[in-house]
Amino acid sequence: LHSSGKVIKCRAAVAWEPSKPLVMEEIEVAPPQAHEIRIKIVATGVCHTDLYHLFEGKHKDGFPCVLGHEGAGIVESVGSEVTKFNPGDKVIPLFISQCGQCRFCKSPKTNLCEKGWASDRYDVMSESDTRFTCKGKKVLQFMGTSTFSEYTVVNEIAVAKIHPSAPLDKVCLLGCGVATGYGAALNTAKVEPGSTCAVFGLGAVGLAAVMGCKNAGAKRIIAIDINPTKYEKAKIFGATEFVNPKDHNKPISQVLHEMTNGGVDFSLECVGNVAVMRSALESCVKGWGVSVLVGWTDMDDFAARPIQLIAGRTWKGSLFGGFKSKDGVPKLVNEYLEKKVKLDEFVTHNMTLAQVNDAIQLMQTGDCIRSVLSVALQ
């Protein structure tokens, strides 16, 4: 059904206010303007960052909104000036844009981009402008994407065109969690062959980091989580050992130092907890240890003793795995199709968009790695 140039009425899960369940509503999605693409969302993952905005960040100016930023779909129509996308193309909307023109896009050192919500609206996590309305009210587009809707409108600088045979209910995970963890190990930590790695937190991002360490050739990959059921999953992705901090009456960093003759070469914090960030840094070996912050949070300060860094450790952060979004995502889709990157193994639950509150609850209890919601019919 091609309704180019017309408003589309469709179903979406609306977050009217913080800490409240999402509500299935009929929303209006305006046609794409110049350089914009209207996308039919076929599948979306539920990521912890959606929960972060709803339950932790809770910035009042960030509501009402449609959450969801880990989706995949099909181009429904394109606005004027769009030349590289056509109706019917399979695409992944991106929460980090890649305009190709700004000083960050032109630098090989970073995947940040000066365009888009992320440049100055980290607190509310959306642009002030939106193509959504509901019951006469403006509804914000979370992270510029809003995949908890049957249709969304995204600027072409934040859309990746992907392989036509890609299964959308799997590759949607490359829109956030899997790309984030996998790239944090490969691009940011730059894990080396034969090295020893520790991954803190075994949700989708942490498991993807484990996979990144394995694909980079790490010899030992120590998976760390307070939920022992996560170890079997971690093994599938390449973990060689598992440590539950609750099994020990000394700091986890000390446990790791004893296991590794003074600390690991690379550690990745995939929780978004400042206390765990400190543990991850202190678990690194002096002289060359590298610790990467991967979990998203902007609530608290982190802390560490200066001697940790003076002694030669490096502390760094990673956003979307360091991948330039429009360049990186189509390549990751191809790597999945070539069986170099796992995706199916992350999906523990398949549901519909109407069950989004159940999926959120599953994630809060830690009983799932990824729930994938079917949104619009393909």
From TrEMBL:
GO cellular component term of the entry, any: cytosol
Domain Enoyl reductase (ER) span(s) in chain numbering: 9-373
UniProt GO molecular function: alcohol dehydrogenase (NAD+) activity; S-(hydroxymethyl)glutathione dehydrogenase [NAD(P)+] activity; zinc ion binding
UniProt enzyme class: oxidoreductase
Named cofactor requirement(s): Zn(2+)
Gene Ontology biological process terms in this record: formaldehyde catabolic process
Coiled-coil ranges per UniProt: none
UniProt KW NAD keyword: yes
CDD domains listed in its UniProt record: alcohol_DH_class_III
Catalytic activity field: a primary alcohol + NAD(+) = an aldehyde + NADH + H(+); S-(hydroxymethyl)glutathione + NAD(+) = S-formylglutathione + NADH + H(+); S-(hydroxymethyl)glutathione + NADP(+) = S-formylglutathione + NADPH + H(+); a secondary alcohol + NAD(+) = a ketone + NADH + H(+)
Protein name: S-(hydroxymethyl)glutathione dehydrogenase
InterPro entries in the record: ADH-like_C, ADH-like_N, ADH_3, ADH_Zn_CS, ER, GroES-like_sf, NAD(P)-bd_dom_sf
